[in-house]
Amino acid sequence: MKPKVAFICVHNSCRSQMAEALGKLLASDVFEAYSAGTELRPQINQDAVRIIKDLYKVDMNETQRSKLLDDIPEVDIVVKMGCNVVCPFLPSKHEEDWGLEDPSGKSDEEFIKTAKAIEEKVKDLARRIKNNEINL
C-alpha cells in the first residue's frame, strides 16, 4: 500500500496546493498526495495555478480545491510547508517541515522559484520513501 502524504499549511491555497499537484504528477507511483489547511479559501491562489499550468501543464483549478485537515484521510507522512505562525497539527508516523516562504502577492519569479523548490523536495521525498529511509 502506498503511503499517504499530506502537505499542510494554514490556508491551503498556494504552497501546499502546488506540492499536492507536483506530488500527483511526479510521485504518484510512490505515494498518494493530499493537501489541507486550517482555513478554507474560496479558491486556490490563481498565480500558483497559472505558474503550475505554465511549468507542468497541470490545471489545479480543475483537479484541486482548498480543503480542511478533516477533509482528507488519515496520513502516514505530514509535510509542513513552512509556517511562520503556528503550523496545523496532523497526526502521522513521520513529519517534516520544508520551510518554504509563501510567494503569495510576490512576483512570478518567486512563484517559479517556489515551484522548482517543491519539485526538488517532492522528488527527494519520493526517493527517501522508496529507499525506506523514512520509518513508516
TrEMBL record:
Keyword Transmembrane helix part of the UniProt annotation: no
All residue ranges annotated as the Phosphotyrosine protein phosphatase I domain in the record: 3-128
Signal peptide: none
InterPro entries: Ptyr_pPase, Ptyr_pPase_sf
EC number annotated for this UniProt entry: 1.20.4.4
SMART domains referenced in this protein's UniProt entry, alphabetically: LMWPc (SM00226)
Segments crossing the lipid bilayer: none
GO MF, any single term: arsenate reductase (thioredoxin) activity
Keyword Transcription regulation included in the entry's annotation: no
Keywords attached to this entry: Arsenical resistance, Oxidoreductase
Pfam family, one: LMWPc
Protein name according to UniProt: Arsenate reductase ArsC
